[in-house]
Amino acid sequence: MTSVLNNAVTAGSTFSETLANVTGYAPDLNIVEKLWASYYVYMANDILATGLMLFIVHEVLYFGRSLPWIIIDCIPYFRKYKIQDTKEPDFKEQWACMKSVLLSHFMVEALPIWGFHPICDYLGIQIDVPFPDLKTMALHIAVFFVFEDAWHYWMHRGLHYGPFYKYIHKQHHRYAAPFGMAAEYAHPIEVALLGVGTVGIPIFWVIATKNLHMFTVYVWVTLRLFQAIDAHSGYEFPWSLHHFLPFWAGADHHDDHHRYFLGNYASSFRWWDALLSTHPKTQRPKSGQKEKAN
Ligand SMILES: [Zn+2]
Ligand SMILES: [Zn+2]
C-alpha cells in the first residue's frame, strides 16, 4: 500500500503496467510525476521505496558525478586547468578512497537513509503527486543552500580546532590536492556532523513551515552532492560557475583549503570567509613554516 494517489491506483504485474495504470488515472501529470507515482505504487511499501531510492540515487549520483573527473584526470589537454598541476592523484589513491567512501556509505549512511521515510512521514514531508511548482522548489532549495553553507562554515571551522582536527577531520585532509571522489572521504563523525547540514536543515524547514515535498529534498541532495564533488575536483575552468556568480565557492575556493589548510571553511558560498577574513591568503603560514599542518 502507498499513500501516493490515495491508494486509488493498483500496481500491475510489471512496472510498465503500473505506469499505464497511473497514466490512465492521472493523465495530466508530467512524465517525472508519473514515474514517481508508479514507483511508489509498484513498490507498495513507502518506507522501502523511499529508503531504496535515496540510497541508490546517492550511490549512482556520487560515483556517476565523480567519474567524469577521473576521466578528465587521464586527458592531458585538461592538465592546464588543474589548480595544483604538480599533484596528480594516482589510481591506487583513488581506488583506496573509493573503497573507504563505499564502506562509509554502507555503515554510516545506510541507517539514516532507511529511517528517513518514517521521519518524513511524521514531519509531514509530502510524497504525493503533483509536485510543487518550480518557484516553490527553487525557493526551498535556495534557503537550504544558504543555511547549509552557514552550518558547514562553523562546523568545519570547529573541526580545525586541535583535538577535533587530530581525531576527526585529519582524515579528510589526507589529500592536499583533492579529487572529486574525495568529497565524502571523511571520518564517520564528520560525515554525520556535516550531514546534519544537508538533511537536518530540510527537517527544520518542514517543522517551521509544514511545507516541503520529498522530490524537492532529492533535487536539493543532488545539487549539494554535485557542489561537494565539483569543489573537490581540483580543476578551475574559465567557465567555472564562480566567474558568473562571484559569491559561489567552487573548486577555486576549496582547493586552497586543502592546500593551505587554514581558511575557506564554507561549502557553497564565499561570504562567510570574506566577512570573517578566514581566507587562506590572510592566514597563509609564514615562510619557513610548513604549508600543510599534519
Ligand atoms: Zn578542513
Ligand atoms: Zn574538502
Explain what you see.
The protein is mostly helical and 294 residues long. It has two domains: 1-44; 46-283, no CATH class. The protein is built from twelve helices and no strands. The protein is globular and about 60 Å long. The chain starts with 14 loop residues before the first helix and ends in an 11-residue tail after the last helix. The model is unreliable at 284-294 (pLDDT under 50). One zinc ion binds at residues 156, 160, 169, 173, 257. Its main location: membrane.
Mean pLDDT across all residues, rounded?
A: 89
Percentage of helical residues?
A: 55-70%
Structural class: mainly alpha
Rg calculated over all Cα atoms = 21 Å
Identify the bound ligands. zinc ion
Protein name: Methylsterol monooxygenase
GO cellular component, one term: membrane
Organism: Sugiyamaella lignohabitans
GO molecular function, one term: iron ion binding
What's this model, at a glance?
The protein has 294 residues and is an all-alpha fold. It is 60% helix and 0% strand. The protein contains 12 helices and no strands.
Keywords:
single chain; 294 residues; mainly alpha; 2 domains; binds zinc ion
Layout of helices and strands:
Blueprint: H1 15-25, H2 31-43, H3 46-73, H4 91-114, H5 116-123, H6 134-159, H7 162-167, H8 188-209, H9 214-231, H10 250-260, H11 271-275, H12 280-283
Helix pairs in contact: 1-2, 3-4, 3-9, 6-8, 6-9, 9-10
The protein binds zinc ion (2 copies).
GO molecular function: iron ion binding; monooxygenase activity
Subcellular location: Membrane
Organism: Sugiyamaella lignohabitans
